[in-house]
Write a structure and sequence with these properties.
Bound molecules: coenzyme A
CATH superfamily of one domain: 2-enoyl-CoA Hydratase, Chain A, domain 1
CATH architecture of one domain: Alpha-Beta Complex
Helix content: 40-55%
Number of helices: 11
Number of strands: 9
Radius of gyration: 18 Å
CATH topology of one domain: 2-enoyl-CoA Hydratase, Chain A, domain 1
Length: about 260
């Protein structure tokens, strides 16, 4: 159980709100678990027609909790991986997913948008996937989906150089439907969700299935997660997490592997 994810269902719309604003909504294991519980419930309950993701505070999410990564890095057996469970649930979701994103969307905060069917960005949105800076590799099938969406070179610059996309660039790359003032973000996402609740659910789920190669997505998630798990155990990754905790730039001059 966690208070850091608020789950609300009103009029066929499940809203999952990340509510850890003092840590920029960094995602702990318990938060991933709550998000998965929400997605699994939405799949089973015909009364839930749409799921909306949003975040409290000035950031959508700073991505995976880096203290959690550092703790996992020291363990041989990482136990049930809640981040992996969430990512797999995203990959196979059949209901429409909508995201309302303001401020930083780091790592999975950006890669999860590739699984959303409608994405609304506030003018403050800043999308980053700095996996290589953390000595990691892309996840959530983003190594397949991001280059397919925005082209290899832009995706590579995001993954390998950590280059951010601001809201206007993300819109022009096809990663979002609209950029709106932050004050209008939630109402815009809500209006889209309400519109979807009035559409025939069978036609919606078939349309989504036709638009996504779920098997290829699942296979890519499997490939990525093997390498991601190995990367977490490397000296490079330990240096990256320690540097974040010590608020200094990482030094990869001696770390190798
Ligand atoms: N995991 C754990 N804690 C995090 C976090 C993360 N991913 N991101 C931010 N926080 C914490 C900070 O440690 C800080 O905690 P403190 O107040 O106890 O010191 C608090 O959230 C605020 O973060 P801060 O860095 O001061 O905010 P900022 O506005 O200057 O920068 C970010 C925001 C998101 C750009 C920056 O925090 C960041 O780069 N975070 C790491 C993102 C990341 O690499 N995620 C993993 C992707 S795979």
């Amino acid at each position: 159980m966690t208070d850091y994810v608020k789950t609300e269902v009103v009029a066929g719309i499940m809203t999952l709100t990340l509510a850890r604003p003092d840590k920029k909504n960094a995602l702990s294991s318990a938060m991933y678990s709550a998000l998965s519980d929400g997605l699994e419930r939405a799949e089973k309950d015909p009364a839930i027609r749409v799921v909306v993701f949003q975040g409290d505070g000035d950031s959508f999410t700073a991505g995976n909790d880096l203290a959690d990564f550092a703790a996992q890095a020291g363990k041989k057996d990482r136990g049930e991986n809640q981040a992996g469970r969430f990512i797999r649930n995203l990959g196979k979701a059949t209901k429409p997913l909508i995201a309302a994103v303001q401020g930083n969307a780091v790592g999975v905060g950006t890669t999860m948008l590739l699984h959303c069917d409608l994405v609304f960005l506030a003018e403050t949105a800043r999308l980053t996937t700095p996996f290589v800076n953390l000595a990691l590799v892309p996840e959530a099938a983003s190594s397949l989906l991001l280059p397919a969406r925005i082209g290899h070179v832009r995706a590579y610059a995001m993954f390998a150089l950590g280059e951010p996309l601001d809201a206007a660039s993300a819109l022009s790359c096809g990663l979002a439907n609209a950029v709106v003032p932050v004050a209008e973000l939630r109402s815009r996402a809500r209006a889209a969700a309400e519109a979807l609740t009035k559409r025939p659910p069978g036609a919606l789920s078939h349309t989504k299935a036709l638009m996504r190669n779920v098997e290829a997505i699942a296979a890519q998630i499997d490939r990525e997660s093997v390498i991601f798990g190995e990367r977490l155990q490397t000296a490079e990754a330990r240096e990256a997490f320690t540097a974040f905790a010590e608020r200094r730039p990482p030094d990869f001059s001696s770390a190798a592997g």
